[in-house]
Structures are given as structure tokens and as C-alpha cells.
Design brief:
With 452 residues, the chain is an alpha+beta fold. The protein has one domain: Beta Barrel (Porin). 20% of the residues lie in helices and 39% in strands. Helix 2 crosses helix 4. It is globular and about 60 Å long.
């Protein structure tokens, strides 16, 4: 999500300065922001949860104020972004690099419009299921950037999707519904039809070392980012993706703000706050939710990288997050911490170790540890991935006394052309926690993707 673009002038700060000029109003809003929702948190009787909420919001507030200072020192420089492989600008760079079709290059040059389209299909199968033997679905995506207002340093980022199942069971529903595994396979592949996934403004500043995004966000684009986390390109099991399945994520199309900056040549920080009740079918409702419901997801990440240019490849970070109670959905508040360590060696091998722990928040897992590697092969310009995950189901979500789970996944992605690929995937799941009939399950999966 934090990616791409160039920086030449600072973002206007007049609205922020006008707001700050009314001191009493400013401090009133700070107090409301820090403590709003406290009555919801107190329902659980968890003092540590309340303290975590205040701490997270205070941290995000400090980031917001520091942005004002950074924006005033913007320079004409671009730099690599802070987001994961699914962030719009990162995905475009992966698909096209500097090679564009003639008509797309003309759109970019004449109108400032960057346009990309892709289609991905997924088939999941298992040797033992409750009913349906497979889950299948596809996603068509239209995404890119648009220099709509001709503002240097910034651009409008968009992503629109159509998600559909091919039969009665989507890939999203397959794990919990058909094999009793507390987890998700290809969670993006559900049956929600047309939706707005991203519609936000991205502003680069501070010589390309800082990025602000605001609007309709996908928190997984910047939260606990990991180079092998894309459900379009990499592992299918969500335990190897954002949060190692321990984060109580906000809904998609979450209205909010996130900010990432390099503190030194090697240390970086990313902070964000979003509404938890986004609705991709009605994304603009999130603006009302943000200011009226006051049910937020906040996160702060501190990380180390060998250089900003390799931030997604050589990355070690800690992510702290808090989620307010969602009254309408009856999801409890909670908090957690995640860690990630990965390094790209010899330009073809990436070992990694990731994990997390959560208190409540409606997450899938309470504790999780994943380790594995990705290996770039010369044959078919391919990628081989292998990883193992241990996970403890969140008893607040699924009830007490469930078995810990073990999952092993191996995949191979082969390029079939310049912008198309097929992935073959095998998984072994031991002790699926809500399956009373099976102690182990094998899965055999297939994914195909083409970009235009």
C-alpha cells in the first residue's frame, strides 16, 4: 500500500493548522479520541485492554502530529514503499516493471492514469470433507493510480473487484465449513460480488522516506507486511499471511489513515487507524462510521531493514495492535503483538519466521508460529514455497479446550507467459480443531492468474 510515485512539493497543511489554532477544541478532540469507546472496553472488565487502547491511540496521534512537521520538509525524491506485495503500486511494479503496452503508456503519459486488470481463479480440494469435496472461485480486479488533481507527490489509488464462487462453496468458506480447520484458505476468494477494495490518496514526502495514505484502505496492505503473503502469488493458507491468523482484522474497505516513515537508514515505523466496520459494497458509509461509531482498529509497527530499497525483502519487525469492541457484530475488543523476520539471500532464497499472540478480538488463532522459506527457481521462472505452522485456536471465538493445530504447505508457482502463472499447492493439516471425525487431512489445490 505504501508504494510508488514521486515527491516534489509538500502536501498543503493549512486545514491542519487551522484546526490546531483553536486550542480548546483541539484538546477536547484529543481527549475524545483517546478515551472514546472506553465504555465499550469496560464491558469486558479488562483494564489492560483499556490501557492498550489509549496507548495505541496516543501513539497514532503522535504520528499524526509528526506528519505535519515532515510534510514541511518534502523534497523531490521517490523511494520504495512500505507495503506488502498486494499493495496496488507494488502489484503493478511486479506485473509490469518498466514494460508497458503502448496504449497503457499513452494513458499514463496523457491522462496520468495507470490501469491494470487481472483475473485469478482458485480450486481447493481435500481427501475428507463434511459435504462438498471442493471450494472454487475467482476474482476479477481493476486497479491502478490516477493523478486526478495533478498534485505532485500524490496520487489517487483505486482497486475495484468482483468476487464470485464457482459453485456452492467458495474458497473462503472451505476450511471452516468443510474440513473443520480453524483457519482460512485464500480468504479473499469469497462470494461478495462487486466491491470497492481501495480508494485512497497516497502522498509521499521527506525525500521519499515517508508516506501518508488516507481514504478507503485495506489494512492488510500495510499491516505486518511480508514478501510471501499474497493470496494471488504465494501461500494459500492464511496462517502464512497477515498476522499469522492471530490479528482481529478490521473489515475490508476500512476508512482510515496510515503513515510510514524511515527513522534512520535502517529503522522504520508504520502506524494506522481505521474504522472496524467497513463495507466494500458501500465504502463511503465508512466515513460516517469513522466519526460516529468510534470503533477503531489501531496499529503501530517498528522494524529494521538493511535499506529502504530492500524493505520488503530484508525485514524484521514487531507489530502492536488494538481493536475496539464491535457492538453491532458482537465482536469483543482485544489486542495483540506480532513478529516477523525474513531475509532474501543470494537473490533466490528467503527463509522466514513469523508469529503472533492475541487477547480476544475475534481472531482465528490465539497464538501462532510459522516458519519456512521461498526459493526462486530458473525452471519456468518459478517460485517454490514450503512452510509449517503451529496454531492455537482462539477460545474466545471458538470455545475452550480445542486441540492445537499443525499445518504444512508446499507450493510451486510456474510462469506460463509474461504475465500469467499457475500454482500447484499441497497441504497437510493435523488435528483440525472443529472436526470431530478426522485427525488429519490432505489438501490439493490449484490457482491460476493472468494480468493484462
Amino acid at each position: 500500500m505504501f508504494s510508488g510515485g514521486t515527491l516534489k512539493i509538500a502536501m498543503p497543511c493549512a486545514p491542519f493548522l487551522a484546526f490546531l489554532s483553536n486550542e480548546k477544541r483541539f484538546y477536547d478532540k484529543i481527549a475524545k479520541f483517546l478515551c472514546q469507546g472506553g465504555h465499550k472496553l469496560s464491558l469486558s472488565g479488562n483494564k489492560s485492554d483499556t490501557n492498550m487502547a489509549i496507548l495505541m491511540r496516543l501513539t497514532v496521534l503522535v504520528f499524526g502530529l509528526s506528519f505535519l512537521a515532515v510534510a514541511a520538509t518534502a523534497q523531490d525524491t521517490s523511494g520504495p514503499g512500505f507495503g506488502g506485495p498486494d499493495a496496488v503500486e507494488n502489484q503493478i511494479e511486479t506485473d509490469f516493471g518498466e514494460t508497458w503496452d503502448t496504449w497503457k503508456q499513452e494513458l499514463k503519459d496523457d491522462l496520468g492514469l495507470v490501469l491494470s486488470v487481472d483475473y485469478t481463479a482458485v480450486l481447493l480440494t481435500a481427501n475428507e470433507t463434511f459435504d462438498d469435496k471442493n471450494g472454487a472461485g475467482g476474482i476479477a480486479r481493476l486497479f491502478g493510480t490516477f493523478d486526478l488533481f495533478n498534485v505532485e507527490n500524490g496520487t489517487l489509488v483505486y482497486k475495484f473487484e468482483h468476487r464470485h464462487a464457482y459453485g456452492s462453496v467458495s474458497p473462503f468458506d472451505f476450511s471452516l465449513g468443510q474440513i473443520g480447520y480453524v483457519g482460512l484458505q485464500e480468504p479473499a476468494f469469497n462470494d461478495t460480488n462487486f466491491r470497492t477494495q481501495n480508494l485512497y490518496w497516497r502522498q509521499r514526502m521527506n525525500g521519499g522516506r515517508s508516506v501518508l495514505i488516507a481514504g478507503v484502505l485495506d489494512a492488510t496492505d500495510y499491516l505486518d507486511a511480508f514478501a510471501l503473503a499474497s493470496p494471488w502469488l504465494h501461500f494459500m493458507n492464511f496462517a502464512f499471511s497477515t498476522g499469522s491468523a492471530t490479528i482481529g482484522l478490521p473489515n475490508d474497505a476500512a476508512v482510515g489513515v496510515a503513515y510510514g516513515t524511515m527513522l534512520t537508514d535502517n529503522l522504520y515505523l508504520i502506524a494506522g487507524i481505521t474504522d472496524t466496520n467497513g463495507d466494500p459494497s458501500d465504502p463511503f458509509k465508512g466515513f460516517d462510521n469513522f466519526f460516529s461509531d468510534n470503533e477503531y482498529f489501531t496499529s503501530v509497527e517498528i522494524g529494521y531493514t538493511s535499506s529502504q530499497e530492500r524493505i520488503i525483502f530484508d525485514n524484521y519487525h514487531l507489530t502492536f495492535w488494538h481493536k475496539d469492541r464491535q457492538d453491532a457484530a458482537n465482536v469483543p475488543s482485544g489486542w495483540g503483538v506480532n513478529f516477523s523476520a525474513s531475509r532474501y539471500l543470494n537473490d533466490n532464497l528467503m527463509p522466514f519466521l513469523r508469529g503472533g499472540y492475541t487477547e480476544d478480538a475475534g481472531s482465528l488463532l490465539e497464538a501462532s508460529i510459522s516458519g519456512g522459506m521461498g526459493y526462486q527457481t530458473e525452471a519456468f521462472d518459478g517460485l517454490l514455497g514450503a512452510a509449517v505452522n503451529w496454531g492455537r485456536p482462539n477460545e474466545d471465538t471458538f470455545g475452550p479446550d480445542l486441540d492445537d493445530q499443525l499445518a504444512l504447505e508446499v507450493f510451486y508457482r510456474a510462469s506460463l507467459g509474461k504475465r500469467s502463472a499457475v500454482t500447484v499447492d499441497v497441504q497437510y493439516i493435523q488435528d483440525p480443531a472443529i472436526n470431530p471425525f478426522e485427525s488429519s487431512i490432505w489438501m490439493f489445490n490449484l490457482r491460476g492468474r493472468v494480468a493484462f
